[in-house]
Amino acid sequence: MNSAQADNWIKHLRLKPHPEGGYYNEVFRSEQQVIRKGESQLKNSCTSIHYLLQNADFSSFHRLQSDEIWYFHVGSPLHIHILRPDGQYELKELSINETGSLSVIIEAGMWFAAEIPSRLGFSLSSCVVAPGFEFSEFELGEKEKLLELCPTQAELIERLCLK
Q1: What is the CATH number of domain 3-159?
Q2: Considering just the CA atoms, what is the radius of gyration of the chain in Å?
Q3: Does a cis peptide bond (omega within 30 degrees of 0) precede residue 131?
Q4: Is 134 helix (H, G, I), strand (E, B) or coil?
Q5: Residues near 103 by Cβ (< 8 Å), separated by ≥ 6?
Q6: Which of 21, 38, 45, 58 could form a disulfide bond with 115, CB atoms 3.0-4.6 angstroms apart?
Q7: What single DSSP character describes residue 135?
Q8: How would you write the chain as a 3-class SS string?
């Protein structure tokens, strides 16, 4: 799995740089509308993107107000690092390996980041967000706040935060 293959996927799927890192393209935004419990604003019921990381690229720590499901397609295994509101850390592997899973669920409000642990090759996945993704509900993690939440993961937080 080389960079030429990654470049082919980027071109074929019309991926563009994502603010959190990596490349993406939104491929579906449902016309169905839902209202999140406790809110009054209508939202698209779900959205879906193709997402690609390559080599040392990473998806920086961030959180959403919606649930997100990642699906593995092809390439290197992907590690998804999750910081729970109680400070607990969880590692999920998105891959076809026995140690991994073809899908990973990240519940709304969880801080998470993703990377290729070998830092070699690329990983192509899809992400479905329900209710649908909105940049206004996307929050990049700040090192200081995440270090307070989960000090045992300081190296990881330092490495995978943009702010």
Answers
A1: 2.60.120.10
A2: 16
A3: yes
A4: coil
A5: 69, 70, 71, 72, 94
A6: 58
A7: G
A8: CCHHHHHHHHHHCCCEECCCCCEEEEEEECCCEEECCCCCCEEECCEEEEEEEECCCEEEEEEECCEEEEEEEEECCEEEEEECCCCCEEEEEECCCCCCECEEEECCCCEEEEECCCCCCEEEEEEEEECCCCHHHEEECCHHHHHHHCHHHHHHHHHCCCC
Instruction: Tell me the C-alpha distance between 36 and 19, whole Å.
Output: 25
| Cβ atoms 7, 13 nearer than 8 A | no
Q: So where are the chain's domains?
A: 3-159
**Mean pLDDT calculated for residue range 95-99:** 97
Question: Does an H or E element contain 11, and which?
Answer: helix 3-12
Output the pTM of the full model. 0.94
What is the C-alpha separation between 119 and 124, in angstroms, rounded? 14
Tell me the two tokens of residue 15. 């991926």
Residue 50 has phi, psi (to 5 degrees) of: -95, 145
Write down the pLDDT at residue 3: 80
